Each structure stands twice: as structure tokens, then as C-alpha cells.
Amino acid sequence: MLTKPNAMLFDLDGTLLETAKDLGNALNHVLLAKERPLVTYEQYRNIASDGAKGMLELGFGEELESLDFESLRQQFLTHYENNICVDTIFFEGIETLLNELNQQSIPWGIVTNKPEFLTQKLIQFFPLLQACKVVISGDSLPERKPHPKPLLYAQEQLEIQSPNTWYIGDAQRDIEAANAANMTSVVAEYGYLPSIQESHNWLADIHIRQPLDLLAFL
């Protein structure tokens, strides 16, 4: 029996923010410079949570092994950093959800594998995200998801007595981390999943089709 959460933690890309288009723009910038075919939103959307490596693997395929990966990665990150919030927006319903958490004094935070310099730059564009209680990035600790340590550390920062923390994410590593941290794990089916059907093998506690589905538990 699920009880009302007294804290919520969220993944960033594909859970709070629709960042795929700006990540795709960075990939296409690199592909264009190398005179390679560009990729479409439909092709890269569900790869977006896999970061620079996943996106470059999509764009260059097996050819990537014979190229200077680190140079391409740096080109990708530089373009993304300089154009980090051109097409990025909240997923529909996220603002209502976060405002409701604030209204009910339920603390919430962000735990992402995105590097800290990109995480901090991105959330500056969203005042609502700046109001969260804790932000843990992919390089904030030696460990990153699917290790549970980032989630447990974030929970410690919230300083809750007898925490009943829920973690919401759109990748298998998110659910593995939440389960290992003994948190209620929630799959955001609206995010960058390889397939909704596959996500049912991740052993999550809850699946939601849209952010506002969580209001039923509040």
C-alpha cells in the first residue's frame, strides 16, 4: 500500500524538462561540421537521456570507433552549453505539479547524471527549478545513477524525519537507483523511454503517463 510521499526527487532530462531538441541541435551541429547526414527529432528523442555518448553513437554509428571521440564530444558539449535553452521547455503539467508540492510544503529536488556545469546553467532559465531544495548532478559525487548514493545523499540534504521519498525518472538507471535506495520508484512514461513495454521490466512501483498523474497520490 502506497502512502503519500513526504519528499520527491526528480530526474531532469526527460522527466522535468523536454531537453531533447537542444541536445539534438548539438548533435546535428557536429554532424553538419563533419558533412554527415542529420538526424530527426523522431530518431534522437528516445536517445536524449543517454547524453553526449549516446547521441554521438546515434549520429555516427560504427564509424565513431575510428574517429576522435573526445574531440567530437567536446564539440557537442560546447555547442550544447552555448545553446542550452533554445528549445527546452517544461513537460506539460510539471509546473502545476511542482507548485502543488510547494503548496503542500513537500520538499523536492533534482538528481541527474547531467554534469554540474550544464545542470546549473540550465536551471537558471527556470525560476521554479531554482526553488528546489537540492540539486545533485552526475559529477557531484564519485557515484552516479544507477548507484543509489546520489539519491540517498539528496534525501539527507532534505533533512526529513522518517522520509518517504519518491523518485521519478524515465530511464532504467533511475528505477534501479530508486529501488536500491528503498525509495518509491516512478517511471515517467512521457519521457525518453526506449519503449513503454520494456519499462515494465524495470520493477518500478508506479508508472505515470503524465506528470499530473502524481497529483492523485498527494
Describe this structure in words.
This protein has 218 residues and is α/β, with parallel strands linked by helices. The protein folds into 2 domains: 7-18 and 88-217, Rossmann fold (3-Layer(aba) Sandwich); 20-82. 40% of the residues lie in helices and 13% in strands. The strands form 2 sheets. Strands 5-4-1-6-7-8 form a 6-stranded parallel β-sheet. It has a two-stranded antiparallel sheet with strand order 2-3. The model has no long low-confidence stretch (mean pLDDT 97).
Considering the chains and any ligands shown, give keywords for the structure:
10 helices, Rossmann fold, alpha/beta, 2 domains, 40% helix, two-stranded antiparallel sheet, six-stranded parallel sheet
Mean pLDDT: 97
Strands side by side in the biggest sheet: 5-4-1-6-7-8
Number of helices: 10
User: What is the domain tally?
Assistant: 2
Low-confidence spans: pLDDT under 50, at least 5 residues? Answer: none
Radius of gyration: 17 Å
Shape: globular
Residue share in helix:
25-40%
Sequence of secondary-structure elements: EEHHHHEHEHHEHEHEHE
Topology diagram in text:
Layout: E1 7-10, E2 17-18, H1 20-33, H2 41-44, H3 51-60, H4 69-82, E3 89-90, H5 94-103, E4 108-111, H6 116-123, H7 127-130, E5 134-136, H8 149-158, E6 165-169, H9 172-180, E7 184-188, H10 196-199, E8 206-208
Parallel strand pairs: 1-4, 1-6, 4-5, 6-7, 7-8
Antiparallel strand pairs: 2-3
Quick structural summary:
By secondary structure, this protein is α/β, with parallel strands linked by helices. The protein has 10 helices and 8 strands.
